[in-house]
Amino acid sequence: MKRTLIMKKLHWLFMAICLAVMPALQSCDDNDGYSLGDFTPPLWATVRVTGNAFYLNCDVWGTLWPVNTDIGWYDAVDGQRVITVFNPLWDNYAGYDHAVKLLRLQNVLTKEVETLTPETEEEFGNDPVFIYKGDITISGGYMNIFFMQNLPSSTDNKHRISLVRPQEDDALYGEDGYVHLELRYNDYDDLTGRRSPGAVSYNLNSLDIPSETKGIKLKLNSEENGEVEVTFDLKTAGSNEKLTTNVDLSNMQLK
User: Fold this and answer.
1) Looking at the chain, which residues constitute the CATH 2.60.40.2370 domain(s)?
2) Phi and psi at residue 101, to the nearest 5°
3) How far is 203 from 201, CA to CA, in rounded Å?
4) How many other CB atoms are found less than 10 A from the CB of residue 130?
C-alpha cells in the first residue's frame, strides 16, 4: 500500500513537471526554424550584390541570404528585379532577416522611369496593351506590371514598354497630391496575334516622391477600355497578393 502511494505521488510529480515545461518546449520549437516543406508563393525581390556574392531584398520578407550551393549559374546584377520562390530556413541570420534556400529565381525586365518629350514621343509610342488594374502593383519602391503581350514576328523586333514622366516637375507632382505617370507601349506595327505573358518592373526611386504624396495616377492605353487613368494609393500599395502562381516569361519579347 505504501509503495502504491509513493508511485502515485511520483506519477503526479512527473505530470506536474511535464505541464510546467511544455510551454518552454513549445517556445523553443517555434524558434528553431522552418520545415523543409515550407515554401513561399512567387514573390517580388531585388538583387543586391555584395563582394562576390549576392542577397535578395524581398518586398515582403526583407533581406534574404541564399544558402544554396547550386546557384553558381546565376549572374547577379545589382538592382535586378526577380520573381523568387524560396524555402525559409532561419530568421535573423548573420545580419539578414532570413536564411533561405532558393527554389526559383527568374529575372524580370527592370527599367527606370524615363522622360516624355516632343523628341521621344514617337519612340515611346502609345499602342494599346492588354492589361488590367489588378496586374499592376507597387511594392519595394517599384511599379510591377504583368500583361499579355501580342508577340512580334521576330525576336529581333522586340516591343518597347516604358513608364514615362512629364518633362516639367509641375506636371509630375500635381496639385491634387498625386504623381502623374504614363505607361507607353510601342509595338512597331509588328503583331502576330500570338499571346504570351509579359512582365516589367520600374524603379520609382528616381522620382523622389514626397512623403505627403497621396499616390500615383497612371495613364495607359488599354486594349479593353481605351485611354484610362488608374489611381494607386501609396499608403496601401505594397501588395504582392496578385503574384500567387508561376508565370512563364520565356516567350516575352520586350525592351
Assistant:
1) 113-233
2) -105, 115
3) 7
4) 15
Say which CATH class 43-107 falls into. mainly beta
Give residue 187's identity as a one-letter amino acid code. D
Q: Give strand pairing partners of 80.
A: none
Question: For residue 225, which amino acid is it?
Answer: N
Of 46, 71, 53, whose CA–CA distance to 141 is shortest?
46
According to the CATH classification, is domain 113-233 in 2.60.40.2370?
Answer: yes
User: CB neighbours (10 Å) of residue 7?
Assistant: 10
Consecutive 10-residue runs of the chain (255 residues): their mean pLDDT?
Answer: 41 39 37 73 96 95 93 94 96 96 96 97 96 86 94 92 96 92 96 94 91 92 93 67 55 66
Residue 182 in contact with residue 164, Cβ under 8 Å?
yes
